Amino acid sequence: MANANRWSPPRLVVYGITTVVLNIGIIALAFIHHDYYYTACIQLSQSGAAMMILANMGILMTILLGKLLSRMFFGRLRAIEVERLYEQGWFAVTETCLALAILRDEFDAATLALFVFLLFCKVFHWIYEERVSFMEQQTGLTALFLVRTVSLSFILASVDFIMVMCAIENTKRYGPTMLVVFGFEFALLLVRFMSTWAKLMLNTVDILRGGEWEEKQAYIFYVDFVDDLAKLMVYVRFFFVLMKFYGMPIHILRELYITARSLINRCGDWIRYRKAMQNMHLRYETK
Predict the structure, then answer these.
(1) Each residue of 67-89: pLDDT tens digit?
(2) CA dist list (Å): 217 to 19, 133, 213, 267, 279
(3) Closest CA to 131 of 200, 67, 66, 194
(4) H/E/C letters for each residue in the chain?
(5) d(Cα 159, Cα 153) in Å, to the nearest integer?
(6) What's the Cα-to-Cα distance from 50 to each of 58, 59, 109, 287, rounded to whole Å?
(7) Average pLDDT estimate for 236-254
(8) 85 near 126, Cβ under 8 Å?
(9) pTM above 0.90, yes or no
């Protein structure tokens, strides 16, 4: 019983302490064997184990920065938000590994850093979407929530747009490179952001009207329809570009199928809705 109640440190703390100690050890060892800074850096860059440890330090710093920004813009995350982050994170990591297989000829430290940055941005997009969805359960808006949400919206939109423009400019100058993949990924994030921003506006209007806005669900349906259509267009373009320059893009097949099926279902729902409305007008037509 005593062992069960004994405090155990969080895994992140253990990971952080281990990473810091290993980094201090390999850097100190390199400078012990080399008198000059340049030669010590050369040894570190040529050692696979040293680069792995240094990369872990970069990942640790990214995690700590993410936790700081998360607390700044979202406060304490709800349990369901953490659970969904883990679920979506596993899918994102799997897709990243498949994408790395496609870009194996261009894989380097810069590519890995871009994938980490992409995943970092995706995490904040996911939490942002969860918070906007959670607004439907709220009856009021606080000033802190509005400031946090508007500030984060501006940052997310700016980062997505800048990354897309950088990918386009790089492609114009140097032709198709691995930045094409990241350009399309950030284009998809920008489409999802615009959809979430529209829902944020709709939820805000609904809350200001006391939750009695009857037309809200119709507007949300059209927002989701346009979102699926825009994503499908990006995915199809993404698919054919990667097919032309890199081969079969298996990492986007799942999302391409899900988006296409969702759009087809929404089209079916809209057709059934129109038929139902026509039948109601014919059956209850006023004379």
Answers:
(1) 999 999 998 888 888 888 888 88
(2) 49, 13, 9, 16, 21
(3) 200
(4) CHHHHCCCCCHHHHHHHHHHHHHHHHHHHHHHHCCCHHHHHHHHHHCHHHHHHHHHHHHHHHHHHHHHHHHHHHCCCCHHHHHHHHHHHHHHHHHHHHHHHHCHHHCCHHHHHHHHHHHHHHHHHHHHHHHHHHHHHCCCCCHHHHHHHHHHHHHHHHHHHHHHHHHHHHHHHHCCCCHHHHHHHHHHHHHHHHHHHHHHHHHHHHHHCCCCCCCHHHHHHHHHHHHHHHHHHHHHHHHHHHHHHCCCCHHHHHHHHHHHHHHHHHHHHHHHHHHHHHHHHHHCCCC
(5) 10
(6) 13, 14, 13, 84
(7) 84
(8) yes
(9) no
Contact present, 20 and 57 (Cβ < 8 Å)? yes
Written as six digits, the tokens of 32 are 């012990």
Given a contact cutoff of 8 angstroms between Cβ atoms, the answer to whether 131 and 74 are in contact is yes
